[in-house]
Amino acid sequence: MAKKKLILYALILVFTFIAPFAFPAYGTQLATLWLMIIVAITWDMTGGQMGYNSLGNIFFYGTGMYVAALISIGQVYDVGEYTSAAGGGIYEFTDAQYFSGLFLGVISAGIFCSITAVLIGYITFGLRGPYFAIGTLAVAIAAGELVSNWEWVGGGQGIALPVYPGDLDVGKTFFYFLFASVGVSVFIFVKWLYGTRFGAAINAIRDDEEKAEAMGIHTLRYKLITWAMAAFFVGMAGGISGFQLIHFEPLETAYQTINLGIFMVVCVLLGGKGTLWGPVVGAILFHLFKEVTWTYFLGWQWVALGALIVVTVVYFQDGVMGWVMRKRPEWFGIRVEESK
């Protein structure tokens, strides 16, 4: 079984490397797929593994965009002047300034979002169930409105970042590998994390928080750390997205609660909450579904999305991975004794 897993992981890594070269016309779509995988895995850290369903993880994505952009701009120009009505189109960046700003901005975005998650968590983790979900959603909506009225960061017009310095096709591949690197890193990280005592502790919080506290588990500490770790990776993904998109604005792009904010939840529900591979499988299936419906059923795509959610909730309550696990338990190393 271990040998088969190693072969599977090796094949996935090989495909990850060759994908943008084998399918050059779909570079942007492949990069977006990795983005979906990142946000799905990180949402499942709190929603699936810990039992706290958040509707506000998009806050970290949007905040990561802005932090990365402001760090990149601020190391070269005055932010307020750059983000004024004429600013984005008259300033230039050298190649060194572009790449140093990008990498410093992305790392800063992850760190800032982690710190913010801890601060917000002290308030929101006092809520449970649907109240926690609504509370986190309120944070994301409020952040979008605040930023859209903050002129220093561009207000409603958003921020225009410099274009990738080089061939645009090379730029697509570059951003693909940035997303893929974060995606592979977060998968390896959670695979390790879920096998530790920390993973067992957050599972205990999901199963029965009161009993977990009675056992001596400092539940608030574990909840804050888990959300901070998830926010770190989402913030980095948001920072990369800002540079990939070149221009973004607060409500429709950064803090898009009715798009990516919902998509990451659907990915996990589709693949299977609380499983290692569920968010990955769900993200892949949902991305394919979205690309098809948004391309060939434009105008009806939200109806199709609603139908997908209904079918998933009614017929696949444990997601695709849960359904497969029931049908083929031997694939997961589960031995089922036949009744005599």
How is this fold's topology laid out?
Blueprint: H1 2-22, H2 27-47, H3 58-74, H4 79-82, H5 95-124, H6 130-148, E1 159-160, H7 168-193, H8 197-207, H9 209-214, H10 219-245, E2 247-248, H11 250-254, H12 260-271, H13 278-296, H14 301-315, H15 319-327
Antiparallel strand pairs: 1-2
Helix pairs in contact: 1-7, 2-7, 2-10, 2-12, 2-13, 3-5, 3-6, 3-10, 5-10, 7-10, 8-10, 12-13, 12-15
Key features of this structure:
340 residues; mainly alpha; two-stranded antiparallel sheet; 15 helices; globular
Give structural notes.
By secondary structure, the chain is mainly alpha-helical. It has two domains: 28-257, no CATH class; 263-333, no CATH class. Helices cover 71% and strands 1% of the residues. It is built from 15 helices and two strands. The chain has helices at 2-22, 27-47, 58-74, 79-82, 95-124, 130-148, 168-193, 197-207, 209-214, 219-245, 250-254, 260-271, 278-296, 301-315, 319-327, and strands at residues 159-160, 247-248. It has a two-stranded antiparallel ribbon with strand order 1-2. α2 packs across α13. The chain starts with a helix and ends in a 13-residue tail after the last helix.
